[in-house]
Amino acid sequence: MFGPPLDFSFKCLSSMADVLSEEPNQGLQPLRRWSDKKFNSRALRLNNNIITDLTGLHVTMATLLSQPELLAWLDLSFNDLTHIDPVLAELRSLRVLYLHGNSISVLGEVEQLGALPLLHTLTLHGNALENERGYRGYVIAAMPQLKMMDFSAVTNQERRMAQIWHQPTHRRKPTNQGAES
Fold first, then answer.
1. Rounded to an integer, what distance in angstroms lies between the CA atom of residue 96 and that of residue 86?
2. What is the pLDDT of residue 172?
3. Count of alpha carbons within 13 Å of 141, Cβ hemisphere only?
4. Is residue 110 classed as helix, strand or coil in its secondary structure?
5. Which of 20, 99, 103, 137 has the most CB atoms lying inside 10 A of its own CB?
6. How far apart are CA 154 and CA 144, in angstroms?
7. 134-178 confidence digits (pLDDT tens)
8. Are 6 and 64 spatial neighbours (Cβ–Cβ below 8 Å)?
9. What is the pLDDT of residues 28-84, one digit of tens each?
10. What's the Rg (C-alpha) of the chain?
11. What's the rounded Cα separation, in Å, for the pair 159 and 146?
12. What do you get for the CA distance between the two ends of the chain, in Å?
């Protein structure tokens, strides 16, 4: 059985290295460490900090978690992330990913999250990319396995429309407004 989430929220952390210098917040359920000083959790809360990139995420997970390859829930909401880091696509057991309230602006970067076969819940609202035309349909087309997006259920009709609209013949890469070609 796995323990409660490791909660490093609201600690003014700016990097993954900072996480290792802090103790997690105590929740309702007590956190227990194994003899190797690692936690038996599948959830990591890093929300409401000032994290700008995910360099060192694997090292942080390996240091904190007894089974980092089983991480299922990652909350990176309300940080200062500007891109969807490719390291996220390597978290093959991830089921829930919160990225809302950051500064992510390139809609096309969501496609790399399509490599996560178990991902069923994703949040991206509150990022500049949500202002792109066709945002929701594009994300659903890139990740047809999603059940929830931005805290709203993905309907079968949305899934069908995303498939039709984002077929290779209709599909275009979203533009990054202001970027040069």
1. 16
2. 54
3. 21
4. helix
5. 99
6. 9
7. 999 999 999 999 999 999 999 999 999 988 877 765 445 555 555
8. yes
9. 888 888 878 899 999 999 999 999 999 999 999 999 999 999 999 999 999 999 999
10. 17
11. 9
12. 51
- Residues present in the chain in total: 181
Helix residue spans in 98-172 (DSSP H): 135-142, 156-165
Partner residues linked to 123 by β-bridges = 98
- Residue listed under structure tokens 């880091």: 85
Is the whole model's pTM more than 0.85, yes or no? Answer: yes
Q: What pLDDT score does 157 carry? A: 95
DSSP-assigned letter for residue 3: B
Rounded to whole angstroms, what are the CA distances from 46 to 4, 14, 67, 141, 146?
A: 14, 10, 18, 28, 22
Burial 44-64 (b: 16+ CB within 10 A, else e): bbbbbbebebbebbeebbeeb
Tell me the two tokens of residue 8. 């490093």
Cα three-residue angle 84-90-115, rounded to 5 degrees: 80
Displacement of CA 153 from its chain's centroid (Å)? 17
CA 173, CA 109: separation in Å to the nearest integer?
A: 10
